[in-house]
Design goal:
Blueprint (H helix, E strand, L loop, with lengths): L18 H17 L6 H21 L9 H19 L7 H24 L5 H24 L10 H5 L14 H21 L3 H21 L2 H17 L3 H23 L2 H4 L5 H33 L10 H22 L6 H9 L1 H6 L17 H14 L10 H8 L12 H34 L2 H23 L7 H13 L15 H37 L2 H14 L5 H13 L2 H14 L4 H14 L2 H14 L8
Helix pairs in contact: 1-5, 1-20, 2-4, 2-21, 3-4, 3-18, 4-20, 4-21, 5-7, 5-8, 5-20, 7-8, 7-9, 7-10, 7-19, 7-20, 8-10, 8-12, 9-10, 9-19, 10-12, 16-17, 16-18, 18-19, 18-20, 19-20, 21-22, 21-23, 22-23, 23-24, 23-25, 24-25, 25-26
Length: 651
């Protein structure tokens, strides 16, 4: 008896595996997450995860996905990432915060769903449309970011949300990601893709449009004032020039795009009101001027690419003489020489020791006014990163194998902080993974990255022509993400890891449909994938519902609707019996209601669930004070202070 849904993949444009589907997936995920604050919010992230897993189930049930055999590298990468997700979820058993660990497991479930869907759609002949979708999404986000600074009246009303909470960072472009370093990291991930399409686009229009986008990306990066973004862009360009088979073309495109970027950057430097992010009439006037300059520069760069393309089509351009190896070596030598020369000019070798001392000194970044201007590009201040990484290493040493629990670095830092202020992430994916999930978690993460780069390099060696150039661009984008992950908390900004996973799917893609020889996955594979999807969606539904009901309770409390606030907090607590936040919220609402005994009991329940969370102890101290239980209040306050050493709120 024939298996249900078993079929050959001979449909001309199957919905789940066609080029249009791959392009739409890349563009839709990048744009939606980018426009939703980068997907940092648990509600946005969980909604995407549920939608992605539903698409996976739909593809399996209808037999439309996967429409090709998954390559061995894809299966290895999927297995390693699934193992990382399972290990993250398992860490809730010993974590300092089961609630945070479950949230991190939900994050990994969303990312795993994206990887599963992308690998099932992207065969070797769908690499171009998938990468094109990601590149298009990044360019659109860059355009919106530029408009939010140059002509704020055209941008959404929340373009200044970061400015409201961090006035000192007003000069740094953050919209729509709401974090300047996150925006710069996204630009770095997309830049090599744009360069790749500028060099290998199948039509001259695509090549010109991609070339015109490079100055836009350069301008947006400069406005972020992100040094981490500069490192990521440098890494991406280096990897691209080393791996692409068309080094001369890529180098020329980068040079032309870089020249256009330099013109725009000079224009910003001559308009200090615009560069400072001020909302004055002068800044608006300067923004209008630079907007015109941006259009002129992008058009000029596109015309140069058009002329070069027409000349190449008519064989009017001179060819570099000599063997291809000699030409490649010449370009590589020039690139390396340029990097070394820049390092010598800026005094990097001679001042390395001093710059390292500056990096370790967190006060340098706090006192320098230049930290909010372009002069920060020459600063070596780590803004506390050395202290964060050191604390993460100490957390690893406390539990080398299993870590303190996924998502629990915030509580570890609060107890061992060497700097004042609130810190949730270690500002490095690798250090944070090491501290939270131990050596096992870091090994799984690094093995996953190794499988992606190893598989990508293997496919790169076997590829030819335009396909090889696109794989080189994807590898460069992945390298940019890995560099960004080393120095900032980009893993928590969903649009960035999702973009990386889409590129990973392209790098590991296997051959396309093979007609009657491929009948789709077997019954056991389909059942296993469906079961995985159902488990992931159940987990995401719990985290989503818990977050929504908790926020509903908080909103009702602000309105003074205590019954609604209490009901929503109770629902959230029932949905997440392991979580402390709903219990704390319930305690606060009961305090408003005047039920102090019940409020104290709820606060103690939160303490039992998260013994290292200072918030529950602080709330309990306040409630016990209102009850007149002075000794219990002092005990709770001492505990809160011990759990949050540098907080000024509980001193």
């Amino acid at each position: 008896m024939a298996r249900p849904f078993a079929r050959t993949q001979s449909v001309a444009l199957p919905a789940m595996s066609g080029g249009l589907g791959a392009c739409s997936l890349g563009a839709a995920l990048t744009l939606y997450l980018g426009l939703k604050g980068g997907g940092y919010d648990v509600v946005v992230r969980s909604q995407i995860g549920i939608a992605v897993w539903w698409m996976v189930v739909l593809g399996v049930v209808t037999g439309l996905s996967p429409g090709h055999r998954l390559s061995r590298v894809s299966r290895i990468a999927l297995g390693l990432f699934a193992a990382l997700a399972v290990w993250t979820a398992t860490s809730s058993l010993w974590s300092e915060s089961s609630e945070r660990s479950v949230l991190e497991a939900g994050r990994l479930a969303t990312y795993l769903g994206v990887l599963v869907l992308a690998t099932s759609i992207c065969s070797r002949d769908r690499v171009r449309p998938l990468l094109g979708g990601v590149a298009s999404g990044v360019v659109v986000i860059a355009g919106l970011a530029a408009v939010s600074r140059l002509h704020p009246a055209w941008s959404p009303g929340d373009a200044g949300v970061t400015r409201e909470f961090l006035p000192s960072a007003r000069s740094r472009l953050a919209f729509p990601i709401n974090y300047w370093n996150g925006l710069a990291a996204l630009l770095a991930l997309g830049l090599p893709l744009v360069v790749g399409f500028a060099a290998t686009g199948r039509s001259l229009v695509v090549r010109c449009a991609a070339t015109a986008a490079i100055p836009l990306l350069g301008l947006c990066w400069y406005l972020t004032l992100s040094r981490g973004g500069a490192l990521s862009i440098a890494a991406a360009c280096t990897v691209l020039l080393v791996l692409t088979p068309r080094r001369a073309g890529a180098a020329l495109i980068l040079a032309v795009g870089g020249a256009g970027s330099a013109i725009l950057i000079a224009g910003v430097a001559q308009r200090p009101a615009l560069g400072s992010g001020a909302q004055s009439l002068l800044a608006r006037h300067q923004g209008d001027e630079l907007l015109i300059l941006l259009l002129v520069v992008c058009a000029g760069v596109a015309l140069l690419r058009l002329g070069a393309g027409l000349a190449a089509d008519h064989e009017l351009l001179p060819r570099l003489s000599g063997p291809r190896t000699r030409v490649r070596n010449l370009i590589a030598t020039v690139a390396v020489g340029g990097v070394i020369g820049a390092a010598l000019v800026t005094g990097v070798p001679s001042g390395a020791a001093d710059r390292w001392k500056t990096f370790k000194n967190p006060q340098v970044g706090e006192v320098l006014v230049e930290n909010r201007t372009a002069a920060r590009f020459t600063s070596a201040s780590g803004n506390g990163r050395y202290q964060f990484w050191r604390s993460a290493a100490d957390g690893f040493e406390s539990r080398p194998l299993i870590g303190v629990g996924a998502g629990a670095f915030e509580f570890w830092w609060a107890r061992h902080a060497t700097l004042p202020g609130f810190v949730r992430n270690a500002h490095s994916l690798y250090f944070e993974t090491l501290a939270e999930t131990g050596a096992v978690g870091l090994c799984l993460l690094l093995m996953f990255f190794a499988s992606v780069f190893g598989g990508g390099l293997r496919n790169l060696r076997r590829a030819e022509g335009e396909h090889r150039a696109l794989l080189a661009a994807a590898l460069a984008g992945c390298a940019a993400f890995c560099v960004s992950s080393a120095v900032d908390w980009v893993w928590q900004i969903a649009v960035l890891p999702v973009g990386f996973l889409l590129l990973a799917a392209a790098l590991c893609a296997g051959p396309g449909p093979v007609g009657a020889r491929f009948e789709g996955p077997g019954r056991l594979s389909r059942m296993g994938l469906t079961l995985t999807a159902l488990v992931a969606m159940a987990l995401l539904a719990i985290t989503l519902s818990g977050a929504v009901t908790l926020r509903d309770s908080q909103a009702a409390a602000r309105r003074g609707d205590v019954p609604r606030a209490l009901a929503s907090a109770t629902v959230s607590a029932r949905l997440q019996p392991y979580a402390a936040a709903p219990a704390v919220q319930r305690a606060l609402v009961l305090e408003l209601h005047g039920s102090l005994a019940e409020a104290a009991a709820s606060a103690r329940r939160a303490q039992r669930r998260e013994p290292t969370n200072w918030r529950a102890a602080y709330v309990l101290a306040r409630i016990e004070t209102r009850r007149g239980r002075v000794r219990q209040a002092l005990d709770a306050l001492r505990r809160a202070r011990a759990l949050n050493l540098n907080s000024t709120a509980i001193r």
